[in-house]
Amino acid sequence: MTTVLLALSLIGLAAEGPAISLFDGKTLAGWVAEGVVDDVRDGVKHPVWVVEDGLLVCHGKGFGFLRYKDREFADFTFHVEFRMAPGCNSGLGVRTRAFDPEDSRGTRPSFYSYELQLMDDAGKPPTTHSTGSLYRYVAPRQNAAKPAGEWNTLEVTCDGPRIRVTLNDKLIQDVDQSRIDAIKDKPLRGNVCLQNHGGTIAFRALEVRELKAEPAKP
Prior knowledge:
Blueprint: H1 3-10, E1 13-15, E2 20-21, E3 31-35, E4 38-41, E5 44-47, E6 49-52, E7 55-58, E8 64-68, E9 76-84, E10 89-96, H2 104-107, H3 109-112, E11 114-119, E12 151-159, E13 162-167, E14 170-176, E15 191-196, E16 201-213
Antiparallel strand pairs: 1-16, 2-16, 3-8, 4-5, 6-7, 7-16, 8-15, 9-12, 9-16, 10-11, 10-15, 12-13, 13-14
Organism: Paludisphaera mucosa
Protein name: DUF1080 domain-containing protein
InterPro entries: AL/BT2_dom
């Protein structure tokens, strides 16, 4: 049982059924690239999002997202493992929607819902723009990111208005959005996505577990 799921069991919540795998290690089935989707190198067009050696890799040119389009989630734990190259800037979107470049401000996760920032900033003080932040809204309790080149494990649990984030076995966010004016009206359901914002990043073990309340004890 993962750290976050153990914590959930201790506060009266449980995962519903087995994990839902979002990545088969071979294809981008279920995902859609939005925003900048191609990069031209040496006169040849290459996709920004690719599968390489069983990993989902973003080569970080331009600005856009890879959104899991096949399903929306309300209350869930999203598990992701990621490895950044030096200088990387990326993120995870939760409870988000399709990205429209014509309405970038209104449809990107960091405005519409939440972006969990991922960037090459290990060892730097936590801010509202550092790894693990609810970008521009809430700084993490600490910067628990590992240096570029090392694998990180992140789990974000969305349970009604409560957002909990664990990075490398450290609880870095435990927020009730209903108590914070700037985020109290954020949606409670939507897609998950990955961000392209510059620099190479690899992902693996992408999965979601939906939550359900435990029956009340007599």
